[in-house]
Design brief:
The structure holds two protein chains of two kinds. By secondary structure, chain A is of the alpha/beta class. Chain A contains ten helices and ten strands. Chain A has one domain: Alpha/Beta hydrolase fold, catalytic domain (Rossmann fold, 3-Layer(aba) Sandwich), CATH 3.40.50. Helices cover about 40% and strands about 15% of the residues of chain A. The chains are: A alpha/beta, B mainly alpha.
C-alpha cells in the first residue's frame, strides 16, 4: 500500500484508474477508513473516473500522532495526495469530519480542484453540535471506541439499514474498532478545541459545489448545510431523501451516481449552482427535483417560506 | 504468522504459551507503572492530582493481580531474556529538552504510561470466536478497556498549558516512547506467532 510522507508521519492512500481521467478524491469521516469507499471506487471507475482515497492521520493504517493531530496537518496530507494526481480535473468530496477537511482545502487550495462535494458537513459548531461532540468524546473516554460506535450507529443510520444487521452489529463494528485507536480518535475530536468557524471564509470558495445533506440528518442538520449554500457562491444544496448523517454508507449507489453526474455536468459546462435547493431521487439515475417553490426547506413540515 | 491469537482449543481458549507471553509482558509493563506510582505516591492526599495518582496505582496493581490469576501459565524459555529487556525499558529516562528536573520526572512517567495505555491493545488480538467467558479473554478485554480510562490521567498532563513551552520536546519524547513500547510488544508477540500492526 503506498504511503505519503508528512514530516515524520506516513499516510496510507489508494489510487485507482487511468492517469489521464478526471479524479475524485474522497475523504473519510471520524472512525472511518479507506475501504469504506470500495463501492464508490467500483462505481466511479466504471464511470471513467480515477479514484483516490486515504486514511486520515490518526485513523486506519495511517500513522497516529500520539498527542496532537491538527486539522492543518490533515489538509496538508490531502494536499500531498492531490499532488500525486497530476494536472487533470480533480473533484474533492468528504463526509462529516472529512467534509470539513475538504472545505478547508477548497478555501486554501481552491485552484487545484474543479469541484467540491461536502457531505453531512458543517462550517461551524452550533451549540447542539458542540454539545453532541462533547458528549461523544465523553462516551469515547468512558466507554471506549466500541461505545462511541454504539452511539454513532443509531444516530447516523436508518432503521431500514440497521434492522437486518441487529444480530450482527459486533461484526459490523469490528473492523472500525480494530483499526481505530481510542487515543487517536480522542486526538481527532480534540482538534476541535481550537476550531475557528469557517463561515467567514466560505465565500472564497469559487469552484462549483454540490452540498449533500440527508433528509433526517440530526447530527449536522439542514441549517448547517444552509450556511454552506448561502455562503458558497456557485453552490447547490441537494437533499438525500430518507437519509441520515452516514448516507454514504447506506446509499452508496445513489451517492456515487450523484457524484459522477455532478462532475460530468461541471466538465461539460452544464453546472450552474445558483444556490438552488434540490431533492435527490431515491434511486440512482433518477431525476433531481427542485425543492417545491414557496416552501421552507429548513423545516420538516411544509411551511411557506418567508418572503425574501 | 497471524494478526490474531490462536488456534483456539475446542472451548475457545487461547493457547497457553501465548497467554504466558502476553501476560508476562503486560505484568512487566503495568507492574513497572504500579511501582513507579507507589514511589511517587505521597503520604497524604493534598491535591487533586494526588487522588488520580492513588487511583492509577490501585488500577495498575489490579491489572497485575488479574493477569496472575487468569493466565494459564506454562514455561517460556525466552522470558528471562525478554523480561530483562522490558524492565530496562521501563526505567526512568531524561526527557530531552526538559531541563527542569521536577517537571522531567512526571513527564517521563506520563509518556511511558501513555505509551503503555494507548499503544498496547491486547483485546484487539482476540479472534472473533474466542470464548467470551474465558478468564484470560475477559482479562484482556478488561485491561484494554481500563487502559483507555487510565490514559485520561496522562492526556491532560501532557497537553497541559504549563507544558506548552515544551510541546515539541514532550511530543518527541512521547512518540519515542510509543515507538519503543510498540517494538517491545511486537517482538514479544512475534515469538508466539502473532504479527501486530506497527505504524512508522
Amino acid at each position: 500500500m503506498p504511503r505519503l510522507v508528512h514530516g515524520s508521519y506516513r499516510i496510507r492512500y489508494e489510487l485507482d484508474g487511468p492517469a489521464n481521467a478526471p479524479a475524485y478524491v474522497l475523504v473519510n469521516g471520524l472512525t472511518q477508513y479507506s475501504e469504506l469507499w470500495s463501492a464508490y471506487r467500483e462505481a466511479l471507475l466504471a464511470r471513467g473516473f480515477r479514484i483516490a482515497t486515504f486514511d486520515l492521520l490518526g485513523q486506519g493504517e495511517s500513522d497516529k500522532p500520539a498527542l496532537f493531530i491538527s486539522q492543518e496537518d490533515q489538509v496538508t496530507a490531502l494536499h500531498l495526495l492531490i499532488g500525486e494526481l497530476g494536472d487533470g480535473p480533480i473533484f474533492l468530496s468528504g463526509i462529516s469530519f472529512g467534509g470539513l477537511i475538504a472545505l478547508r482545502y477548497a478555501i486554501e487550495h481552491g485552484e487545484r480542484i474543479s469541484g467540491l462535494v461536502p457531505m453531512s458537513c458543517f462550517a461551524e459548531l452550533s451549540p447542539q453540535l458542540l454539545l453532541l461532540g462533547n458528549a461523544l468524546r465523553t462516551g469515547l473516554i468512558l466507554g471506549g471506541t466500541s461505545y462511541l460506535q454504539d452511539l454513532l450507529l443509531p444516530m447516523n443510520l436508518s432503521d431500514q439499514w440497521l434492522k437486518p444487521l441487529l444480530d450482527k452489529l459486533d461484526s459490523v463494528k469490528r473492523q472500525g474498532w480494530l483499526v481505530n485507536d481510542l487515543y487517536a480518535l480522542q486526538n481527532l475530536m480534540e482538534s476541535f478545541l481550537e476550531f475557528k468557524p469557517l463561515t467567514p471564509r466560505l465565500s472564497t470558495i469559487a469552484v462549483p459545489t454540490m452540498i449533500l445533506n440527508g433528509e433526517f440528518d440530526f447530527l449536522t442538520p439542514r441549517a448547517m448545510h444552509e450556511t454552506l449554500r448561502v455562503e458558497i457562491p456557485d453552490s447547490s444544496l441537494v437533499i438525500i431523501p430518507k437519509a441520515y448523517h452516514a448516507f454514504t454508507l447506506e446509499k452508496s449507489a445513489l451517492t456515487a451516481d450523484l457524484l459522477a453526474r455532478f462532475a460530468d455536468d461541471v466538465l461539460a459546462g452544464r453546472w450552474h449552482g445558483n444556490r438552488a435547493v434540490w431533492i435527490a431521487p431515491e434511486e440512482p439515475g433518477g431525476e433531481l427535483a427542485p425543492f417545491p417553490a414557496g416552501y421552507d426547506h429548513l423545516r420538516a413540515i411544509p411551511v411557506r417560506a418567508a418572503p425574501p | 504468522m497471524s494478526r490474531f491469537l490462536g488456534p483456539l482449543d475446542s472451548e475457545g481458549r487461547i493457547p497457553s504459551h501465548q497467554q504466558t507471553r502476553i501476560a508476562a509482558f503486560l505484568i512487566s509493563a503495568h507492574g513497572a507503572l504500579a511501582r513507579q506510582y507507589a514511589i511517587a505516591l505521597p503520604m497524604r492526599i493534598e491535591a487533586a492530582w494526588q487522588s488520580e495518582l492513588n487511583a492509577q496505582f490501585y488500577r495498575e496493581s489490579e491489572i497485575v493481580s488479574l493477569l496472575q490469576r487468569s493466565t494459564s501459565w506454562v514455561p517460556d524459555m525466552a522470558l528471562p531474556y525478554m523480561a530483562a529487556s522490558w524492565e530496562t525499558a521501563w526505567l526512568p529516562k531524561p526527557v530531552e529538552g526538559i531541563i527542569d528536573q521536577p517537571s522531567a520526572l512526571p513527564i517521563d512517567l506520563a509518556t511511558r504510561a501513555h505509551a503503555i495505555h494507548a499503544g498496547i491493545r491486547p483485546a484487539a488480538l482476540l479472534p472473533v470466536d474466542a470464548n467470551a467467558n474465558d478468564p484470560f479473554v475477559l482479562a484482556l478485554r478488561r485491561i484494554e478497556f481500563e487502559s483507555g480510562r487510565l490514559l485520561q490521567a496522562q492526556i491532560p498532563l501532557l497537553k497541559s498549558d504549563s507544558l506548552v513551552p515544551f510541546r515539541d520536546a514532550v511530543s518527541t519524547a512521547l512518540e519515542r516512547r510509543h515507538a519503543e513500547v510498540r517494538k517491545l510488544w511486537a517482538d514479544a508477540l512475534e515469538g508466539v506467532g502473532i504479527i501486530v500492526r506497527q505504524e512508522r
